[in-house]
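Escalated from tier 1: 4-methylsulfanyl-2-ureido-butyric acid holo job.
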Amino acid sequence: MKSRALTVSAAQLGPIPRSATKAETVARLIKLLESAASEGAQLVVFPEAALTPFFPHWFVRDRSELLTFYETRLPGPETQGLFDAASELQVAFVLGYAERTAANRFFNTAVLVDELGEVIHKYRKIHLPGFELKQEGAPFQNLEKRYFEVGDLGFGVRRWGNAEIGLAICNDRRWPETYRVMALRGAEVVCLGYNTPALTPHLPESDRLVDFQNHLSMQAGAYQNAMWVIGTAKAGTEEGVCQIGGSAIIAPSGEIVATARTMGDELVTAEIDLDMVTRYRRDVFNFSQHRRPEHYSIITDPVSL
Ligand code: CDT
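Tier 2 regenerated the structure:
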């Protein structure tokens, strides 16, 4: 038995068809939660926008249709079953979803729900990729800037059990600040879900690198900040848009300790050692001993010295 061991699962989802009801999708999530519990998982991470297809890939003209993709409360009537399953199985989970607030604000959100089925932490996506306006001629859209506001909750960290947990969402994983801000706040595990198209229409030269850059971002974030990263994909071809898989559990060493093999619903489970964070932060990533932020922005003309 490792010191401070935690068993975690990335619960990768295959595509969610536009025709699927939320009840059908929630049933898929519950099935994954049950399988994870049977494998001993204590924490299960679902993808970004796990209750719906990734609708920012479409220009949705009809506002009443658009509003069906957002949750006005969590748990709500369609999601209560997932929360009940978590408390019955005594498993915590991270869920990404589209949030509509009482004040009619819209966010790309993730919550941490504990093993009693209580929401104990919330994060709203800060790095929204894509566009506000419809891209004429594009093979698919990325309209996150149209459908969501920039998150207003910062990168918080929440203690759960004996672990410090941070949340991020998809494009956040490409930005070093995401991990660093949470590491400075003590995060030991960053949980994130993603919906990443295999093709980037505005940067086709990166298409052959999409899987590499996915893992590169998360592995660099994990290593440079001495933390565990659990990254969960919504994979496969969803309404004509092919999305990558590659869900992974990544150690503070930067190594992938478990990864998905399929492009469908699949659990990726590993026992992780939280004290590995402590060991790396005592040594090579001892922030207080080795970081020198006060020196990073000194403006001196070196030629004048
Ligand atoms: N959902 C999301 O954030 N997707 C973006 C697509 C950007 S394409 C480089 C992502 O970072 O995966």
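The CA atoms of residues 33 and 261 lie 19 Å apart.
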